[in-house]
Amino acid sequence: MTDKHILVTGGTGYVGGRLIPRLLNAGYKVRAMARSPERLLCRPWGRHPKMDVVPGDALDQSAFIHAAKGCDAAYYLIHSMNAAKGKFAQADRTAAQNMVTAAQQNNLTRIIYLGGLGEADHESLSKHLKSRHEVEKILMGSSVPVTNLRAAMILGAGSASFEMLRYLVDRLPAMITPRWVQTPCQPISIRNVLDYLEGVLQAPETVGQTLDIGGTEVLTYHDLIQIYAEEAGLRKRLIIPVPVLTPWLSAKWIHLVTPIPASIAQPLAEGLSIPVVCRDSRIHSMVPVKLIDSRQTIRTALDRIHQEKVDTCWFDGGGALPPEWATCGDADYAGGTILQGAHRIGIEATPESVWKTLQQIGGHNGWYFAQPLWQLRGLLDRAVGGPGMRRGRRDPVDLRVGDGLDFWRVITLEPPYRMLLLAEMKTPGDALLEFNIQPKGEGRITLEMVARFLPRGLFGILYWYALFPAHQWLFEGMLKKVAQKTGKRVVDGPEAFKAESSVECKL
Q1: Is the separation of the CB atoms in 220 and 275 below 8 Å?
Q2: Does a structural domain hold residue 502?
Q3: What pLDDT sits at residue 87?
Q4: Mean pLDDT in residue range 384-395
Q5: DSSP letter string over 82-101?
Q6: Lowest mean pLDDT: which of 13-27, 307-321, 457-471?
């Protein structure tokens, strides 16, 4: 249909991960830049004949320039939501400047940016919305034309805004809320966002334009709560707005009730504290789209969740790179002592049958053994600001690189032999959990479970040794349960063993 080559940044995120397959289906050649290319290659469309995945970090100018080489246009879908890092504004600024440089040096015809609604001079404009407006200025200050789409709340299965709404309503029949629940906003369905993102590429009149995109109605968060309750078959929620809940306090409360961490909940709450309503309707004539109202959007999102068919999730954007000490094969004393606990079990089974059971751990499936202890660890993690167990998993059966898995992140999958998980719970150090399936011939395998930990300071060392006896018991129990769920006979073990000192070097 077209020979255009399109660069997509932020392809591992919620929006980018849904936009790429649409562009491929429309006939475009797509190049996606990602810090962890394997996270895109493992998607159903990752090895599409018109798909090109290149490694690169948006903060690395040379990588950005290389990624844009030979492309006609670029989608810029990058924005940091993690307030805890504290330097998101500078990171956004650097990445936007790198986009401009890459676009200018490669003579791109245009940049398409998905920004945020909200008046730039509003006295209560949040730091994150200010950063988005700054990115707009940087992009539009270049010699490459920009199409700037400005959206408010994006609703859809797996979006941070929708998940926050879902968990608040599902779990709280009555709630004390901040005053911002009465602030007007114009939410938009993720499907319509994708319609506009794809549509502007085919509409030359949108070049160089800043366009507002929104749904069919102006609502308040109060309205959305009640609409969700109706669609979910719940009673009308009692909502009591109070003036004392700041965005910071709101974020802490959201963190306790929902899977959304406070670092992401805070910019969401801050964004809801000011009116975000479309002031410009020109997009309707430039890119005609059948808009979906909020009720239908919520209904569709609930259907996708019930069918367990969520394509991308808000937590997809997390890092999927192992810590340096796990990839370089350095000696133990180089950078710190790596502590480890390793157990193995022999099973009369094929690698494929064990892998099928292994990759279903976590989420609603649980961790097969001592689940109350896993839940307790999750509660403790939530209490100190970690993700806990509420995040669950994207799909009950399938795993892919980059997936959040309770308080872990999948960073390596080599089916049916190896899985590597990075701990995202709050710990005094970096932790990895590795599963290896070793074929032994004659229909037998050895399943290895290895935990590695690089402690920070004395407390990290004490933390490891305090939990070491529990880990011994837990690992042996998990291995036996995996064998049991596989339905195959245990031939030896479980037993402790000494694993290799570090993960195989990947550099």
Answers
A1: no
A2: no
A3: 74
A4: 83
A5: -GGGS-HHHHHHHHHHHHHH
A6: 307-321
Whole-model pTM?
0.77
For residue 275, cis peptide bond before it (omega within 30 degrees of 0):
no
CA 503 to chain centre: 25
Q: Which residue has the higher pLDDT, 125 or 479?
A: 479
**Structure-token pair, residue 231:** 């669609």
Query: If residue 240 lies in a helix (H) or strand (E), which one and from where to where?
Result: strand 238-242
Which residue is it, tokens 């509420």? 390
Please give the structure tokens belonging to residue 187.
């939410």
Terminal-to-terminal C-alpha distance of the chain? 39
Please report the sign of the dihedral spanned by the C-alpha atoms of residue 142, residue 148, residue 151, residue 154: negative
CA-closest candidate to residue 409, choices 427, 424, 395, 399:
424
- Comparing CA positions, the residue from 451, 449, 310, 301 lying closest to residue 392 is 310
243, with CB counted inside 10 A (0-12, 13-18, 19+), is: exposed
How buried is 166 (Cβ within 10 angstroms: 0-12 exposed, 13-18 middle, 19+ buried)? buried
The number of domains in the chain is: 2
414-438 average pLDDT score: 92
Higher per-residue confidence, 180 vs 72: 72
* Dist. CA 33–CA 40, nearest whole Å: 9
In the predicted structure, residue 429 carries a pLDDT above the cut 60: yes
Domain span at residue 94?
5-316
Nearest Cα to Cα of residue 210 among 154, 135, 160: 135
**β-bridge mates for residue 109, sequence order:** none
Q: Please tell me the predicted confidence (pLDDT) of residue 502.
A: 46
Give pLDDT, residue 505: 37
Mean pLDDT score across all residues of the chain: 87
* Alpha-carbon span 375 to 369, nearest angstrom: 11
**Spatial distance between the Cα atoms of 253 and 448, rounded to a whole number of angstroms:** 40
Share of the chain above pLDDT 90, in %: 55
The two structure tokens encoding residue 178: 């901040």
**Has residue 503 been placed in a domain?**
no
Rounded Cα distance between 44 and 47, Å, is 8
Q: Which of 284, 316, 348 is the last residue of a domain?
A: 316
Q: Are residues 132 and 101 in the same domain?
A: yes
Q: Which residue has the tokens 């809320």?
A: 177
Average pLDDT over residues 429-443: 91
Amino acid identity of residue 381, one-letter, is D
